[in-house]
Amino acid sequence: xxxxxxxxxxxxxxxxxxxxxxKNSIPTTAIAVRLEAAYGSSDFQRNSIFSLAYLTVFSECIxxxxxxxxxxNIEQRSNIILGIFHTPAAAEINELxxxxxxxxxxxxxxxxxxKIEIKAGLFMDTxxxxxxxxxxxxxxxxxxxxxxxxxxxxxxxxxxxxxxEAPSILVTYNIYDxxxxxxxxxxxxSYYFFHICCFGNYQLP
Length: 205
What we know:
Elements: E1 12-16, E2 19-37, H1 48-67, E3 71-77, E4 80-86, H2 90-111, E5 118-136, E6 142-147, H3 149-161, E7 169-172, H4 173-176, H5 181-184, E8 187-193, E9 196-202
């Protein structure tokens, strides 16, 4: 995979009050891993066993995502683990899906035991995201925000499928279209969430 160091270059820079704002549009892929307790609450403080399972999967996701060399950001969104990757080429998207999804599902399978039962889903979308760097001239605190439809669609589908039975792997058409035919043929069904076409029921090797 390509080196993420070359992913970000200046595009627009402007200043609002004491903030300097630098925005770049970047081809990205978002991977979201949603975890829920199989029984009882998915609240981290009320369910310490689920909290342990989440932290274990999160730490493994950091290792798996970082190993790709193209991961731009890893963050928590409630019970969702979100990874953002620089993917200017279809080959990188195909490799992300075939390698990363398999490694994450192995981790989830290892964590999911009779003592720690969890439900999990993996979701992917790709497109262009805006990387917005907020630089505070009055302090040492800076922040990078990731904005755009790719992340919003991924999180939206994650939250929607939490309320119903959904495949453990779900990708948007944007991802599906960039996978090689061998991968495409392993998806058995199509789904629609908020008019977003997705593919699921992937047949693992």
